[in-house]
């Protein structure tokens, strides 16, 4: 169970509002505040609204608070079915996206700092910077992680079906279930 307080929730909702993303009361009540079982929400977490997720496609609206990071993971192919392919489109703020590259990740070679608590679990090194209106497509079976800039970020995700249970995280301590929801 994710443990976030009312101030944290208000911060997430305010970024949706700053981005001009209209959400229904039901969507607000069902925001997924994912802390990945790390109890480190200031550094590593992801906040999202799932608009649709069916056997053909998925659409989500994601928020990262200032300097918050979504941990490195990949969407694997399973039993002949390709893993999730996703397109991130920055709606507000700045997103630093890192995908697998030809070089080893070096902290002095990227524009952001790694989450200090778990920095050994970040390896993807190819940096893509997205500002509002820019987008990038991540292929299946590709390790990636992303971090918000100093003001936070709102990202729309369009993808093939999403299956959180099959995601593979670099950090073996991560616990991600299909739905982490807090109660008020």
In short:
The protein has 184 residues and is mostly beta strands.
- Share of residues in strands: 35-45%
**Separation of the first and last Cα atoms:** 13 Å
The whole-angstrom Rg is 15 Å
Largest sheet: 9 strands, antiparallel
Number of DSSP strands?
A: 9
Question: What does the overall shape look like?
Answer: globular
Helix-strand blueprint:
Layout: H1 6-18, H2 25-29, E1 32-34, E2 46-53, E3 58-64, E4 69-74, E5 86-99, E6 126-130, E7 135-138, E8 144-159, E9 168-169
Antiparallel strand pairs: 1-2, 2-3, 3-8, 4-8, 4-9, 5-6, 5-7, 5-8
Q: How would you describe this structure to a colleague?
A:
This protein is mostly beta strands and 184 residues long. The protein is built from 2 helices and 9 strands; from the N terminus they run H-H-E-E-E-E-E-E-E-E-E. Strands 1, 2, 3, 4, 5, 6, 7, 8 and 9 form a 9-stranded antiparallel β-sheet that branches. The radius of gyration is 15 Å and the shape is globular. Residues 178-184 have low confidence and may be disordered.
Provide keyphrases for this structure.
184 residues; mainly beta; nine-stranded antiparallel sheet; 10% helix
């Amino acid at each position: 169970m994710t443990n976030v307080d009312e101030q944290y929730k208000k911060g997430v909702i305010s970024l949706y509002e700053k981005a001009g993303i209209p959400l229904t009361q039901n969507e607000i009540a069902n925001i997924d505040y994912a802390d990945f079982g790390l109890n480190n929400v200031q550094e590593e977490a992801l906040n999202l609204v799932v608009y649709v997720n069916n056997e053909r496609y998925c659409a989500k609206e994601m928020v990262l608070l200032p300097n918050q990071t979504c941990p490195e993971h990949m969407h694997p192919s399973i039993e002949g079915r390709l893993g999730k392919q996703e397109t991130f489109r920055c709606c507000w703020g700045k997103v630093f996206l890192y995908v697998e590259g030809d070089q080893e990740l070096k902290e002095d070679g990227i524009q952001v700092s790694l989450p200090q608590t778990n920095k050994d679990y970040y390896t993807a090194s190819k940096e893509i910077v997205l500002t509002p209106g820019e987008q990038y497509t991540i292929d299946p079976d590709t390790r990636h992680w992303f971090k918000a800039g100093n003001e936070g970020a709102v990202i729309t995700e369009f993808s093939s079906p999403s299956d959180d249970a099959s995601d593979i995280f670099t950090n073996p301590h991560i616990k991600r279930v299909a739905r982490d929801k807090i109660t008020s």
